[in-house]
Amino acid sequence: TNAIFTGVPTTVFEVMSRLAIEHKAVNLGQGFPDVDGPEELRRIAAEATVDGPNQYPPMLGLPELREAVADANRRFYGLDIDPATEVLITSGATEAIADCLFGIVEPGDEVILIEPLYDCYLPMARRAGAEVRPVRVSPPDWRLDREALEAAFSERTKAILLNNPMNPAAKVFSEDELALIAELCVKYDAYAICDEVYEHLVFDGRKHRPLMTFPGMRERSVRIGSAGKTFSFTGWKVGYISGPARLVGPIAKAHQFVTFTTPPNLQKAVAKGLASDDAYYEGFVADMTAKRDHLSEGLSRLGFPVLPCEGTYFVSVDIAGMGLGEDDVAACRTLTVEAGVAAIPLSAFYPCRNPPKTFVRFCFCKRPEVLDAALDRLEAYL
Ligand code: PMP
Ligand code: GLN
C-alpha cells in the first residue's frame, strides 16, 4: 500500500466526531452547522431528484451552475470568468484541491503550504509528488512573515496552496500579505491554488479579497469555493473551481478520472443558491457573527484566553494552565469524555514538525441553545 496514506492517521475530524458520539458529547469539533441550509434550495434539489434527469451531467458541471459561479465571481469580486472554459464543478472543495494538485503538480515540484494547514493538504500534495515547503504563522495574529515566505520560494516552486480565510487560524489575510504572496508568485513564476471555502464567512465589516484579484494573479490562480460552507450543506459535497482555461483544462483532466462529475440535482440547487440576494449573504454573516460572539464570550467568561476570529466558523483558545491534560490532544480527550464537549486539537494542523500543543479549536456554527449547553457543561467541569 501507499506509505503516504498508510502512514497518516485517520482524520482528526472523524476521530473526534466518533468520540463525541460515543460519549454523547456536544460536538464542537468537526466543522458543520447543526441547521441545514435554505429550505428553498432543499426543495429545488428534491424536485430535481423526482423530475430528473438523474444521469451523468456534463463533466465540467451543469451549464447553469457554471454560469452562476461566473456571475458570483463578477458580483462579489469584479472578476470576469468565462463559464464555458474557466469553471469546473467538483464533488466538494476536497475533490477540487485534489484535482488542482494532480492537474498542476509534477513529481519533484515544490509546493508551499502555510501552517497550520487543513489536514488533507499535506498527504494530497505529497501524493501528487510535491516536495512540501511549509511556512509557519503563529498566534495571536498569525502574521505572514516576508522573510519566511521568501525563503520558501525557489526556482522549483510550482505552486502555493493558500487557505484564505484560514482554517483553523480564523485569520483573514491582509491586503499587504496577499500583495506579498502575489509578488513572490509572479517573481518565481508560481501558481496559486486558493482554497476560499470560507469566502462568505468574514466578520466585522471585512470583505474577502481573492488573491486572484491582485496584479499578475488572474492568469496564475485558481480559486475554490464550496456550497458546503456557503449554504450549510456540508453533506452535499458540491465545490467549484474558477481560474484561467490553461489551468482549469488540466485540472478538469484530473477531475474526469477522480469523480468525473457531481450529482445534477444538487448542482441545480446550488446554482440557485449562488444567485441569492444580498439579504441571504448578509444574514448568514450576521447569524455567524452572533454565534461567534456567543461562544467567544462564553469561553472567555470561563477563563479561556480566546484568540481573535476574523473569519471561518472556528474559534481557538489557549488551554495552557487550564489543567486539562499534558497537551492539546489530551485536553480534547478530557473535554470530550469528561466534560462532554468535543473540540479539535490544533496540533492536528501541524503535520510537518513540532506543533504548538496548547491550542484547541471550537466550532461555533450551532444553535444558541447548543452553544449554551456546551458552555454549561464546561463550566460544570472546570
Ligand atoms: N478546505 C477547508 C479549509 C475546509 O475547512 C474544508 C472543510 N470542510 C474543506 C476544504 C472541504 O470542503 P468540502 O466539504 O466542500 O469538501
Ligand atoms: N472542514 C471541517 C473542519 O475543519 C471538517 C471537514 C471534514 O471532516 N473533512 O472541521
Automatic annotation (TrEMBL):
Matching PANTHER family: FI04487P (PTHR43807)
Matching SUPFAM superfamilies: PLP-dependent transferases
Source organism of this protein record: Rhodobium gokarnense
Coiled-coil segments: none
Keyword Transferase part of the UniProt annotation: yes
A Pfam family the protein falls into: Aminotran_1_2
Identification of the protein by name: Aspartate/methionine/tyrosine aminotransferase
Record domain Aminotransferase class I/classII large: where: 25-378
Gene3D superfamilies: Aspartate Aminotransferase, domain 1 (3.90.1150.10), Type I PLP-dependent aspartate aminotransferase-like (Major domain) (3.40.640.10)
GO molecular function, one term: transaminase activity
Keyword list, A-Z: Aminotransferase, Pyridoxal phosphate, Transferase
